[in-house]
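Appendix B, record 7
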Amino acid sequence: MQLKEKNLLVVLGPTASGKTTLGVNLADRFGGEIISADSRQVYRGLDIGAGKDLDEYLLAGKKIPYHLIDVAELDTVYSVFDFQQQFYQTFEALIDKRVMPVMVGGSGLYVEAVLEGYQMVAVPENKQLREELAGLNKAELESKLRSLKSDLHNTTDLVSRETLLRAIEIAVFSHGRAPEPAPEIKALVLGTRFERAELRKRIEERLAQRLEIGLIEEVEGLRAQGVSFERLDSLGLEYRFVADLIQKKINSRDELFEKLSAAIAKFAKRQLSWFRRMERRGIEIHWIEQASFEEACKVVELNC
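Structure tokens (predicted):
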């Protein structure tokens, strides 16, 4: 089923707001495939903490195809440019098959890179530039990046020395270069939303479940594989806080739950702020209360 005057269905929303379940059910109903827009689910090995929940892609024995999950190794830095280019390739392949692409995710920067058609170029590693930057500390690298990008939105560029170096490399290379042409995106955007207290309850219940099924053990396994604490910190939230537990910066499982659930709730608030900013910039979001499948179907059918 093709959308009238649209070629992409988007399901966005804050963490724990039922995006994946809704997106998978919509893909099943309207003959689509999922394109994940999650900045951590791209990495192999990040399963529980990243909330891949791959069993959700199986409906009554039928597997709903998904894309851009488990496409990168943890020892690489997967950029917004990487996501945008792989999204375009997947999008065009689905359109060619007359399959509706359904982008699902809460990484606002990834979603916006597609909906607003961020102008980016492929950037090779610049060994000379990296040698010139080798003597700068993290604060000096951040100052350098901000001098190159006054409109810096991607705060993930600031989390580690490697992400800062790559961001500077991209900013220097991109100056004055034209990006490759992008496909025309005509999106119908749905947003999942819950009342604040109910969303907080969902966050806590989901975190309790993830701890029960092995979140701490997953992070311990990553450490055993040689993943550094700095890298875990750069991955944020679950990986950062469990790493703090392992390093005894957090003293107990109960303290971990308290601090991490509060941090996730704050993250959800920031996500909603990002989505409101998208609306102010002209992107229409049809908000679906409590991720209602029936209500979402009505919105989609009005555009078919």
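Remarks on this record: Residues 253-280 form the longest helix (28 residues). Residues 197-266 form one domain.
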